[in-house]
UniProtKB/TrEMBL annotation:
Protein's name according to its UniProt entry: DAGKc domain-containing protein
GO biological process: sphingosine biosynthetic process
Gene Ontology MF term list: ATP binding; lipid kinase activity
Taxonomic source organism: Cloeon dipterum
Taxonomic lineage from the root: Eukaryota, Metazoa, Ecdysozoa, Arthropoda, Hexapoda
InterPro entries, per database record: ATP-NAD_kinase_N, Diacylglycerol_kinase_cat_dom, Lipid_Phosphate_FormReg, NAD/diacylglycerol_kinase_sf, YegS/DAGK_C
Amino acid sequence: MQTRGTVLLEETFYIFNKKKTVYRVKLTEKGLSLQKESNGNSKSETIQLDDIVGCRCMRRKRRKSESCVCRPMTPGRKSGLSVVEENSTEQDENDSSVYLYIYSYLLKKGRGVKSSTLKRDKMTITLRFRSFDHLEDNMREAQRWRVAIKYLVRNKPVPPAVLMPRDHLDQDYMAEIPNSGEDRRLLVFVNPKSGSGKAKEMFERRVVPLLIDAELPYDLHLTSGPNDARRFVRQRHDLTSTYSDIVIVSGDGLMFEVINGLLERPDWGEACQLGLGIIPGGSGNGLAKSVSFAQGEPYSQNPVLVSALNVVKGHKAPMDLIRVETKSLVPDSPSKILYSFLSIGWGLISDIDIESERLRSIGGQRFTIWSLARLVGLRTYRGRLSYSIAPGYRSAGNGPLLRRSTSETEAINNLSNGQNNGFNGNLRSQSCHEDLSAPLSLPSDRSPAPRMRLNSTASSISEEFSVLEYEIDGEVLGETAGPENINPNGSRLRLDSFYSAKSRSSAFYSVAASSYHSLTLPDDDQSPDAICMYGPASRLPALTQPVPSSWTVIDGDFVMVHANYQSHIGSDCYIAPDARPDDGVIWLAVIRAGATRSQLLQFLLGVSSGSHIHMPIVQMIPVTAFRLEPESVKSTGHITVDGELVDYGPIQAEVMPGMARVLTR
Ligand SMILES: Nc1ncnc2c1ncn2[C@@H]1O[C@H](COP(=O)(O)OP(=O)(O)OP(=O)(O)O)[C@@H](O)[C@H]1O
C-alpha cells in the first residue's frame, strides 16, 4: 500500500551550464518534491497535489529552415521553448527528448505594497526526459510520470504497473499503462448577456486554457435567453449519463435556473449529484464568492481563476438547498415550489435589487444610487415572521436574541467538523463559541485562514527557474551532450533539464473531444402546465395551515427580512458572516421598523465588511425553516428568491441540508 509521503517516482536532473547543481525530483503522495543541491547547500520545496491541475507530454517544435540552430542567445531576450503536442506533425524529429509540463497554481504573497495579499500564480514545471537515444524510451519515462501525477491529482491510487522499476519493463510497457481514468465531462452554460456582456470572451480567454491544462473535456452551450438553461437541464435525457458536472459562466440568476431545472427532472436525486461549478460572469456573484471564501481562497485578487480552479479540481462538496413555497395574495391561487441556494428577501435589499434594474446600464453603481433613493423614500412592511430556531441555538427569552448551551455548542461543532464537512471546518467553528446574547463581535480578521500552504520558498526558487528557462534554450540550440555526459559505452548519461516556465509561455491547445458550440435540443414539447417540480417531501405544514406551536412568531412592521444561506449574496455583500454552504442553517437578517435613516445607511455601508451584525437594529437569527406573511396585497414592495422576483404573498422555506453538490478545490 502507498502511504502518504512515500516516494513513488524519483529522478535526478541537471542544468547544462550549472554542472555542480543537482535537482532531485520526487513524486510522492503529497506532491512533487523539488530539491536543489549546489556546493553542499540544499534547498527544497514541495508543489502540493492540491495545487497541480494537470500535466502533458510535449515534443520540441521543428524549427523553421531559415533559423540558425547555432545562433547565440541574444542577451535579455526571452526566447521560450517551443513545444508541440506529442502527436503533432510539427515535432522536431532530431530531438528525441520528451518534455513533461506540469501545470500548477501556487498561492503566493504579492510584492511591494501588496505583500499582505495572497494570490494564485501559474507555475509550469518542465522536466525534460532525454536519457535515452530513442524517443520511445524517453516517452515511456515521461508518460510514467504523467500517468502517476494524473492519478494522484484525481486522488486515486497509482496502479503498480506504472511504478515498476525500469529494468523490469518489457516492450509492452506502454500498452500496460492504463488510462489515467479521466471520468469527467463538463456541461458549460455561458450567458453571453450576463454582467457586462463579456462572459463568452472571458470563458474563452481565461477558463478554456485551464480546462486544456487539465485535459478536461466539455460541451459548451451559449444560452439564448431566459429559461433556456432551465429547459435544457430539464429535457436532456442523457444529462446524468453524459456529464459529471454542470458549470455556469454567468451570475447567480443562471445557477438558479439550472438548479430548478434539475429539480424538474423525475431523476432529480441523481441529477443533484452532478457537480455544480460557478465562474463569476454576472453582476451578482454571491455563490462564487461564498464558495471560495469558505475555503480561504484569495477570491478578490482573481475571481475567475480561483473559481475556474474549483471547477478543474472538481471536489464535490455538499451544499444546502432551500425548498421554497410561495403563494400569491390573489384568492385561490395555487402555491408554487422552487429551490433556492442563495437568499430570500422581503423589503429593503430586495427593493433596491429589483427597482435598480432600470439603471442597469450604469453598472454596479445602480445599487448605490438606488440605496439612497430607498432611504429617502423609506418603506416599512407590516406582516408576520415565524421561524424554527436551528439546533444548537435557542432563544434567550426576550425577543430573538439567542444563546447556545454547552451541549448545543458541541452538537454544532460536530455538525461543523463531522458529517457535514464539505468545506473547511476552520471557517465557522469559532462562531460556535460566541455568546449571541452579547453583541456579536467580529474576530480581527474575518477571512478564513488559507487551507493551502503558502509557497514562500517557491517564490525564490521560481525566480531562478525562470532564468534557467532562457539558458536552457541556449543550451539546446547550440550544444550536444558534452564528453562528461557520455558513458564509456557511448550511450548518453541521464541529463535531463528542469525549469519553470511562466504562464505566458503556455500555448493554447484544444481539449480532445470537446465541443464548442451551442448544443441543440428538440423543440420544447412540454407546456408550462405539464412541468412538475420534484424533490424531497416537505416537513412543513401547507402555507394555508398554521405554523407548528414550537415556532417563534413575530407580528409587526419590518424594514426588511433577508434570509441567507451563503456568506455573501454578492461579491462585496458579506451579509451572513456565520453562514457556510453546507451548515444546514438559514440566517435571517431582520430589521424592524423604527430604525432611523442614518442607522440604515450605516447598515448598508457595513454589509460590505460584515460589520452590520454589530448593529443593535440588526438581528441575525439562525433557523432551519421560516414563514413570511406580508399583510397587504397592495404593497409596493418585492419578494425575491436568489434575486429573482416571485409573487408578493406568503412564502415559507426549509433547509434541505447538503442536497446539491458544488465544485470546490
Ligand atoms: N442570452 C440571454 N439573453 C438574455 N438573458 C439571458 C440569456 N441567457 C440567460 N439569460 C437570463 O439572464 C438572467 C440573468 O443572468 P445572471 O443572473 O446569471 O447574470 P447577471 O448579469 O448577474 O444578472 P443579475 O444582475 O440579474 O444577477 C438569467 O436569469 C437568465 O434567465
